[in-house]
Amino acid sequence: MLKLDKLPFGIALGALAPILGLVIYYFVKAPSISFGEFVEFFFTNKAMLTAAGSVCLIANIILFTLFINSRRDKTAVGIFAMTVMYGLIILYAKFFM
């Protein structure tokens, strides 16, 4: 693993991991439809938003745990900040869209 312990690196990782989690969820659960249709369904179906959103945030939790255990706290703070932001976006989409 890289030895970087910088807040911007954590923010970048925290932003990319949930997207990767969503792509993995797509390939596991819905490979028969296009990715665009999947994303549209993701934002319009509240149950899907909860399920896939949870998988996305689990990707960040795994990263956060790895960086905290390796004592790279600045990177972990960036990952945590993005996890909170993604969580708030998912809550907003679930209740107000």
UniProtKB/TrEMBL annotation:
This protein's UniProt keywords: Membrane, Transmembrane, Transmembrane helix
Name of the protein in its database record: Stationary phase survival protein SurE
Domain of life: Bacteria
Transmembrane segments: 7-28, 48-68, 75-95
Organism whose genome encodes this protein: Lacibacter luteus
Keyword presence, Transmembrane: yes
